[in-house]
């Protein structure tokens, strides 16, 4: 997979254009606008292959899973093996994100009475629907948001919630593929006539936190849709009794009573607290400052839910451990516990602050629609908009470009061009290549210097 990525980059560097980004989220554009994208074609191909062979793509073709496995490998090299967190309600995360991405827009379409668009290829060679592009970073966030996404989705969540926890608690594509996997007539299974010794070597080797030896003992095959067919369990079996092959589709047998009751790390009140805080965290970080993308926000939401329960554990439990540190022992807090508590409180405080920012942003977007439409209430709305935008600038962690841009535009609409100078100065630093901003700033500075 990484060799394919290297070839993709090399093609762009040498020829100036390459295949459009293989972003599965472009499926949303196809469903909403009917434009056939590379991401949609890849998504359709993966679903078809999963219906037959199971979830091979996730383990053999997903760069995010490769990053998570790299993190797990690196942690093991320094003697750390994160304990997987088992939660009931956080497992709803992928389904919720999948519904938000693919189902909710269609429900809105049906409610509004709009027809489904017909599939067609884009005629714009530089648009997001083109199959080949010269814009290598098309439809991708900036470098800092990309780095943040990789750090939290491929690193932090693995350390705190266990290996492949992004796949388990966040990934909407995994939710789609897990549904397809239930129908697939192939899976990890016992050889005909073989008997499982229940040594649990396969379970120990599984990075997806599946109790392989129990499932094959009870069903003769792995029926969990979390199985990514990476074949680690097959390689680990000392009697070579496991293999990938054709088998009866799993259906929903994973929902039946297992040979041993599942053990969860959260009580039901803690599950509900994690779910509630996680939902608030998702909406707090989603599009925060116009920057944070959907999957990064979903990951941060899961982390806020986990942080809430972790702080509860620090308060209520006598012993709390987070590898490699003992946070609390015998009811006595240790210095790592105080440090972890401070980080947790700071993170949840950031979430609360982000909620307030998002409320001001939502109010600002609504007012901007009034101001930009130039209706009879635009003057009053303009002054209210200035207040909302200035609050974000004064109290936000960062002032995004759109805030400076709208501050300048609103000042000019209100016939107060002197108010536009400062936001234009900041915008010229954020958009140094935007000649219009530079010229507008120079003209205003000249105008008010001569007065």
Question: How would you sum up this structure, described in words?
Answer:
There is one protein chain. By secondary structure, the chain is mainly alpha-helical. Among the domains are: 183-251, Alpha-Beta Plaits (2-Layer Sandwich); 320-398, no CATH class. It is 59% helix and 5% strand. It is built from 19 helices and seven strands. It has helices spanning 2-15, 27-33, 38-53, 56-61, 63-77, 93-112, 143-161, 165-169, 172-181, 201-205, 212-219, 232-236, 268-285, 294-316, 335-373, 378-395, 401-413, 421-430, 435-449; strands at 18-19, 132-133, 186-190, 242-246, 320-322, 325-329, 332-333. The strands form three sheets. Strands 5-6-7 form a three-stranded antiparallel beta sheet. A hairpin with a 2-residue loop joins strand 5 and strand 6 (325-329). Helix 2 crosses helix 3 (38-53) and helix 13 (268-285) crosses helix 15 (335-373). The longest helix has 39 residues, at 335-373. It is globular and about 90 Å long. The termini are far apart.
